[in-house]
Amino acid sequence: MDVSGLRPEGGPEQPPPRPSVPSAEQVLLQARLSLSGGPGALRELLEAADPRWLVLGPGSPAALGELAAALGEFAAPPGREQDGSEPPGRGREHAAAAERAQQVGAVFALLLKKLEDARGSQECPGAPAVGPALRRVLGHIYVFAVTHLEERPWTTERSRAVARELLETLVRAAGCASVAEFLRGKEEDEDEEGRFGAVMGLLKQELTKDTWKRNPATKHVFCWTLPHVTRPWLGPHLERVLPPSLLISDDFQEENKVLGVRCLHHIVLNVPGADLCQFNRAQVVFHALYNHLYSREAPLIQAVLLCLLDLLPILERSQRHQGHQGQVRPRSQCDEVLQLVLTHMEGEHRLALRRVYGGILPAFVRRLGILVVRHLKRLERVILGYLEVSDGPEEEARLGILETLQCTIEHAWPRMPCRLPVLLKALLRLIWDVHTDPGPTPEPVRATLLQRATQCLILLDHCSRGQVKVLLEGVYSSCEENRVRECIRKVQEST
User: Fold this and answer.
1) Could you tell me the pLDDT band of residue 322, with boundaries at 50, 70 and 90?
2) Which residue, 370, 308, 317, 318, is CA-closest to 341?
3) d(Cα 198, Cα 182) in Å, to the nearest integer?
4) Tens-place pLDDT, residues 114-141
5) DSSP secondary structure string, 309-359?
6) Which of 156, 179, 152, 151 is nearest to 166 (CA)?
7) How do residues 437-451 score in pLDDT, each as one tens digit?
8) Residue 82 to residue 490: CA distance in whole angstroms
9) In angstroms, rounded to a whole number, what is the distance separating the alpha carbons of residues 169 and 176?
10) Gap between the Cα atoms of 85 and 87, Å rounded
């Protein structure tokens, strides 16, 4: 006899058993697996979900992290070949990636809102669990937002706007006032660690020699993020940021070289010199930069020389600590760099490179000080050659060379009297050319050229004990151009 359907006589009727409610981690896992059809179903799920349900389960933080990673991968731009080349006909794929980014950005924004609601709920006993859940998703959302933040082939105006809004929401959700604070942590809270380590952990697997070019967004995310982390927060992450910076700078494409060198420059400025010199890191960076000096591209040369100017003092301090005190100062890396730069300057005809070299040369002369006498012969040839040729309306190269000459006279004045005849002739010719040239040079630029040339003449007169005044007496009496006479008069009246 079947008694399974009977109940005790007079007893209460038993309610049917409730269907078991799936845990958040189960639902999130299923949503992650079904992303190939788009995030629409996931968005509907999050809109209907109770914020407490998302965070109360013991496995919810990990499930949310896996879901955030899958969403970022779903919206990633199309991959490239091993060498970074872009296959033809990618316009449609880029447009599809931008469309996916808009959808994923909306889902991420909704997820952050739900987590904030759960944290702010006064009735939720599981509110402390929101912290671990947030930490699991913040890094993935940050990488996604920065990937689509700027104008790239895989973004549109709308997808960039979504990424911008999401990044602002992310910073607020983390309780920070800026992206820099989000990455490095709050200054007043020494125990709170920033999210830069977590972000670099996510980028690490894509910043290797074999992978960094396949995802076209990786280098941009790294190069956009790094400048936000400054001294003293960057030092502990040196092992994470130096290898990818060297890797990007060593590429054959100029764009990547410049990006990598700028990252190296930021590291040099924001990591203690002792840390850079440990394990010969500073030497490695120096050799990587020095090899770029053979390039013919002005933006790269400028980035390299600016970085070297900040790296060379670190190398020199390291050499002094290794026992060069009290000895005749040996030829340094600064001497090597200046020698190579002067060699390239002598035969350079490209105006863009002449402007870069002319603008940076005074800093190297100041860097060497009196030791610039080691390079005076070649430096004199460069100065004379650059003073003869105009480089355009703004005269950047000639202005830089006049500043170089002024610095050289100030630091190496005992060696100047023997060079007085050629330098005086070159400066007078420059003054005449600037005054008589009918070209499009603006008047303020002409005035600056004449002022710097006059100042060089005054310095030459001082170091030659008045010889310039004597030589200019005949020129002043025979010259009929008032502007040229005014320059000569200033030299004669100088004391």
Assistant:
1) low
2) 308
3) 11
4) 888 887 764 545 444 678 888 889 999 9
5) HHHHHHHHHHHIIIIITTSPPPP-HHHHHHHHHHHHHHT---HHHHHHHHH
6) 179
7) 888 889 999 999 999
8) 64
9) 10
10) 6
